[in-house]
Structure formats: structure tokens, C-alpha cells
Amino acid sequence: MGLRGLIASLIGTDLPVSEVEPYRRAGSDAYDLIESAPPATWTSLAAWNAFMPQVYGDNVLSAATSGRYVAVEAVVFARRLFELACHWVEEARKAQASPDYRFAFEVPFPLPHWVDEVRSDAQLAAMRATLDTARTRTASGVTRFTGDDALRDRLRVMLAEVDAETTHTERLWTGKPDIELRTSISFSLAEALDHVYELGQYLAQPELLSPGLHPT
Fold it and tell me: I need a labelling partner for 148 at 20 to 30 A (CA). Which of 18, 46, 60, 75 fits?
């Protein structure tokens, strides 16, 4: 974060948006990659793995920004997400360079999570917006899937799980949750985000559904 960010975190001061903007830009290729990567490839998998944390980080910053300043806690977490996105953008570029390129990957591969269990209104809003984006994209992917019937059924079951978790969260949602309800919403959103991230990974590279696959 740097000395300025460290001092700000210690005294609870917000940071200028400009302090985190370079990290946001660094992973922004994720948006182009998710649209251009060939389906059912290692490039597509890396692109999805970059896309969702980039979206999440953007949502975290947007929800926590007021004017030209953003909450320090949001900056710290968004940087973790942007760094993950950058890692996967690099892997996608390598996979684009060679159809034989493989990277070590096993599922489940979850998203980063906040350290404490209770989220602020802005943080919950960022989580919910990210889930909506990811759920829409994966639902479309399941509909378009043309692979083996057994694999399609597994993907449909996974999507049904995400849909059930999303519905559960929506029914818990309220403008002024108490601590207990806020904790439940936070947990439900984190769980749904992990599951939709995993579903997107299988859609991007269906080879991951093959038993005993351990790419190196």
C-alpha cells in the first residue's frame, strides 16, 4: 500500500481514488480477454479467473468511493483482487501464445474473502453486484453448453445451487440488518460468490470435470 496508505489505515482516513487507480488499470485487460478467449480452453479458464476478481475489485471501489476518496479497507481488499486478476491475465497471455501451455490448477479455487465476517452496507452491495454479474454470465454459459449430457447435467446442478443461494440472499436482504442478519447475508454472499466462480471455471474449461485431472 505504501507509507501514505499505511498511515491512513492506522488513523482510519480515506485515500484518494488515484492511489488505487493504477492497480485497477493493471488488470483491466480481463474485460477484453473474457470476450475474446476461445471457449473450452485454458485461455478461457485464465480469462474467467481474471475477470471475476477484476469485476469484484471494481465493485468494491465503486461502492466505497465518495467523491475523490475511497475507504482504506476497500482499497486494501480491492488491491488483493486486482493482483489476483493480474496474475490470471498473465496466465491467459501465456496460454494465448501456445495451445500447449498448461498451468497448475485444481478446483475448488475460491475468491479472496474479507478477514472479518461482518460486512458494511457498501461491501455487501459490492458483493451482491459481483454475484449478479457472474450469475448472469454463467447462466448464459450453461444454456449454450453443447458438451456431453452428463457434464451438462452437472453444470445445471451447480447453477441451481448458485440460484438457490442467490434467492436466499435476496430474501434475507433488508435496508437495516442487525448484526446477526448482516453476518448471515455476508456468509451467504461469500458462499455464492465462491460457487459461481467455480461454476465459471468448469464452463471455461470443461476438462476440469474429468476425474483425476491434475494439470501441470
Answer: 46
- Count of residues making up the chain: 216
Q: Which residues constitute the domain of residue 173? A: 3-209
What single-letter amino acid sits at 194? D
Please check whether residue 216 lies inside any domain of the structure: no
Specify the DSSP class assigned to residue 207. Answer: G
Q: pTM, whole model, 2 decimals? A: 0.90
For residues 201 and 110, what is the distance between their CA atoms, to the nearest angstrom? 10
- DSSP conformation class of 92: H
Instruction: Evaluate whether residue 215 is within a structural domain.
Output: no
Which pLDDT tens digit goes with each residue over 71-97?
A: 999 999 999 999 999 999 999 999 999
Cα separation, 38 vs 170, whole angstroms: 34
Please give the Cα distance from 187 to 108 (Å, whole number).
17
Instruction: Give how many domains the chain has, as a whole number.
Output: 1
Distance, in Å, from the CA atom of 23 to the CA atom of 75, rounded to the nearest integer, reads 10
